[in-house]
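Subgroup meeting minutes
Present: P.N., E.W., G.H.
Scribe: E.W.

1. P.N. recapped why we're keeping a running log of single-chain structure predictions: easier to compare across weeks, and new members can see raw inputs and outputs side by side.
2. G.H. added today's entry (130 aa).
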Amino acid sequence: MDDEIKKRTQETAAKLFGKGIKMDPPYRTWKEFDRDLANDLSMFITGNLYSRGVLSLPERQMVACAMLAALGAADELRLHVNAALNVGCDPKKLAEVFFQLAPYGGMPKVNEALSVYRDVLKERGEWPLT
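Output recorded in log:
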């Protein structure tokens, strides 16, 4: 079972974080403090949760981006915006997700999310959106 989860974790992580902007994933920080716990967290989040078939990876990333933007978690949002693009999220739909924050989180959250998004797109060489 552990080998199967490790394989799913590696495959899913490669899809999400294998290309695009250069950024250390939080997993590396976790490992500096507790290698075993970092592995457990990674296998749960990426190997079990993200690999479930109920939502596709693009759908999961849209949800993650919306939640991170609403929380104002810019560093984590940067990582997941890149992952969303890596797994095929439509760039215009991702922008729309951030505009949808307006009535619930307010314009400061929209502005922050769009700024992070634009920076990622620039770093990927995909700005401006067409």
